[in-house]
Predict the structure.
Amino acid sequence: ITRFGLTPAEVRVAYAIAEGRLINDIALTSGLSEGTVRQQLKSIYRKTELCSQHQLAALVWRARG
C-alpha cells in the first residue's frame, strides 16, 4: 500500500478502514476530527484511484496478502 505514496497517517486510516472501523471511531481513537479523517480518506482515494471504502479494504487486504 505504501507504493501509492500514502503518508503514515493515511496508511493508518487505510488499515483502520480495512478493519471495518467507522470514520468517527478512527477520529476518536486517533485524536483527530472527523473532518481530518475524511480529508485523509479523500487523499487516499485520489492517490490509489479508488472511490469506495470497500475497494480500499480489498486493496489493503490484498497488500497484506
